[in-house]
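Sequence design from tokenized structure. All designs in this work follow the same two-part layout: the structure record, then the generated sequence. An example of the structure record is given first.
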């Protein structure tokens, strides 16, 4: 068995595209390739709940809470090992928080009260590879700063899965949401608030390759149908089975904002079915309409080089937990018959897979 204590590295680079399409692709690539590209003194710290208190964030002595790693003055990148972390995170600085093994095994549970993750204004924050559940809001982004959400699942929050705010012409939050799933939240999957002084200043938001399904309000909701300023770009998304509608009055055919010419409303055919509960398997079955139907271009490719899979397990950010290469069966359960065997003996591994 390979140890979890491995370094995560990347290649620093730059993009000079000026079109909207180039900006979108460049931002997607940047999420994957910019780990630790800041100061040479920046520290990557580790979190593993299996360890007790008193850690220092190293691979041999990780912190046992995410908040402790965030609060460490050295941290610019936080790698979170699998587990359910019952925390309500307050992010007061620019940082990357990354689930080492992806959203199926790494959960932030905000049920103790408040938002699962609250981000301070004027920060640049990346949240990647996590399931974020049971908060008032899953993620609350305030009135200024830059937020990247990639390969995350927002599920079972008491109100909206993601709440994005803008309350002034002088504040310009920018939010990129790529390859996420927002499902079974008690409000909307993603909510945009814009009201300030009688005008509607929406944030700059780009949402691609994302599934918004089974929410109790809308898949995507804006508080007002007016549009004083802001920029909202949507495409290659699946909006389906949201109780009040897949999107509110600002979006859709003949509305100020199109839902995306490549977007659709189809059952995503999750491995765990369409009950949309937080403990189900949100990987895509081999027959899913979301397989290989995401955004085109080198910057969006799945880790195996195929076209982007819509949802939390596709795209370049899924390199550590990509589970469905080339439409092959998905292994959903593995058991070993013998608990212990002598050296040199044989043992039996049994696996079950989802095949459509």
């Amino acid at each position: 068995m390979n140890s979890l204590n491995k370094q995560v590295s990347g290649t620093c680079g730059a993009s000079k595209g000026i079109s909207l399409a180039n900006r979108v692709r460049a931002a997607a690539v940047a999420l994957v390739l910019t780990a630790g590209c800041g100061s040479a003194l920046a520290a990557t710290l580790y979190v593993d709940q299996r360890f007790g208190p008193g850690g220092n964030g190293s691979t041999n002595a990780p912190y046992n809470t995410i908040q402790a790693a965030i609060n460490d003055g050295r941290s610019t990148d936080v790698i979170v090992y699998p587990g359910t972390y019952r925390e309500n995170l307050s992010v007061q600085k620019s940082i990357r928080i990354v689930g080492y093994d992806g959203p199926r095994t790494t959960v932030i549970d905000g049920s103790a009260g408040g938002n699962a993750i609250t981000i301070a204004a004027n920060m640049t924050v990346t949240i990647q590879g996590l399931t974020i559940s049971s908060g008032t809001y899953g993620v609350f982004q305030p009135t200024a700063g830059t937020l990247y959400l990639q390969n995350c699942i927002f599920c079972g929050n008491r109100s909206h899965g993601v709440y994005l705010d803008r309350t002034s012409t002088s504040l310009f939050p920018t939010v990129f949401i790529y390859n996420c799933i927002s499902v079974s939240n008690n409000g909307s999957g993603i909510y945009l608030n814009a009201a300030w002084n009688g005008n509607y200043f929406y944030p700059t938001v780009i949402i691609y390759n994302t599934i918004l399904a089974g929410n109790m309000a809308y898949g995507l909701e804006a508080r007002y149908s007016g549009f004083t300023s802001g920029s909202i770009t949507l495409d290659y998304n699946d909006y389906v089975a949201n109780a009040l509608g897949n999107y509110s009055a600002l979006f859709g055919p003949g509305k100020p904002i199109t839902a995306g010419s490549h977007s659709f409303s189809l059952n995503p055919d999750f491995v765990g079915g369409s009950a949309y509960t937080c403990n189900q398997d949100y990987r895509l079955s081999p027959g899913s309409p979301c397989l290989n139907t995401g955004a085109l271009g080198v910057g969006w490719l799945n880790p195996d080089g195929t076209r982007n899979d819509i949802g939390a397990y596709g795209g370049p950010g899924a390199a550590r937990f990509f589970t469905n290469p080339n439409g092959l069966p998905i292994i959903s359960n593995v058991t070993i018959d013998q608990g212990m065997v002598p050296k040199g003996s044989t043992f039996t591994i049994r696996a079950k897979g989802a095949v459509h």
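The longest strand covers residues 199-208. We note this feature because it recurs in several other targets discussed in the main text.
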